[in-house]
UniProtKB/TrEMBL annotation:
Transmembrane segments: 7-36, 48-66, 78-101, 107-126, 138-158, 178-200, 212-230, 250-267
Species in which this protein is naturally found: Rheinheimera mesophila
Membrane protein topology class: Multi-pass membrane protein
Domain of life of the source: Bacteria
Gene Ontology cellular-component terms listed: plasma membrane
Keywords for the protein's UniProt record, in alphabetical order: Cell membrane, Membrane, Transmembrane, Transmembrane helix
Compartments (UniProt record): Cell membrane; Membrane
Signal peptide: none
Designated name of the protein: Probable membrane transporter protein
Family affiliation: Belongs to the 4-toluene sulfonate uptake permease (TSUP) (TC 2.A.102) family.
Length: 269
């Protein structure tokens, strides 16, 4: 691999980790559009670029999700009974959606990604937070929610925080516990999503680039994860020193711009 691509993946990992630590978001919102552009620039097959970006992003999120979960566990902020009830359905929804994603075109995935990230950006720009209006549902309700969270997370390669945190807050869970529980749920989402994209990639007839493990492009995943693991704590340390509210608005605008660029890249490839 040429040195310029190595540098690009390392810089992407640094940005992903920093924003994840600073704002509690990041992941696929940054990685998928940038990886799509990088893969197309490296002349990967255009019809596979978005699929590989989603899969590689999911795999890279495993490391940051594990680091985040450990941090919240040290603060006792994870509601493990909720995690255990959500996780089985999340695993099913994530793996199933990863398989579904491979049956969709790059354009369809790019459009869905763009729409969802616009929703996330709007939440951040307007600081929309659901009011606590009910209690946590039973196993059936949590399982149904887990299926949706897992499926959407696989289709946009996120750890699920933009869905899990609002849901738990709506169910009268304290915000600290909502964020901590969401971080714990993010790990099975990342692992099962990666597994789904791996299995789907192994069974495809498409010719994948060298060093791919299913749809996961290993060099990019390893380089991004190796840096994001160290920059996430830096972002977290600065969370109380920097104007986070202003940075969230800047980040929201960045999400929209990157998503639009991704859609343009797919349309013109």
């Amino acid at each position: 691999m040429a040195i310029e691509w190595v540098i690009a993946y390392l810089l992407l990992g640094a940005a992903v980790g920093f924003f994840a630590g600073l704002l509690g978001v990041g992941g696929g919102g940054i990685m998928v559009p940038v990886l799509t552009a990088l893969f197309l620039a490296q002349h990967f097959p255009a019809e596979l670029a978005v699929h590989m970006a989603l899969a590689t992003s999911m795999a890279a999120i495993i490391v940051t999700s594990f680091s985040s979960m450990r941090s919240h566990q040290r603060h006792g902020a994870i509601l493990w009974p909720v995690v255990w009830k959500l996780t089985p359905a999340i695993l099913i929804g994530t793996v199933a959606a990863a398989y579904l994603a491979t049956a969709l075109s790059s354009l369809a995935l790019a459009v869905f990604f763009c729409c969802f990230m616009s929703y996330v950006a709007l939440q951040m720009l307007l600081n929309i937070k659901p009011k606590a209006s009910r209690q946590l549902p039973g196993v059936v309700g949590l399982s149904s929610t887990g299926l949706v969270i897992g499926a959407v997370s696989a289709l946009v390669a996120i750890g699920g925080g933009s869905l899990t945190v609002p849901f738990l807050t709506w169910c009268n869970v304290k915000i600290q516990h909502a964020i901590g529980t969401s971080a714990a749920v993010g790990l099975p989402i990342a692992i099962s999503g990666t597994l789904g994209y791996f299995l789907a990639g192994v069974s495809t007839d498409a010719v994948l680039p060298q060093y791919s493990l299913g749809y996961v492009y290993l060099p990019a995943m390893l380089l991004i994860a190796s840096v994001s693991y160290f920059t996430a704590p830096v972002g977290a340390a600065l969370a109380h020193r920097l104007p986070v509210a202003t940075l969230k608005k800047v980040f929201a605008a960045l999400l929209i711009a990157l998503s639009a660029k991704m859609l343009h890249s797919v349309l013109t490839s």
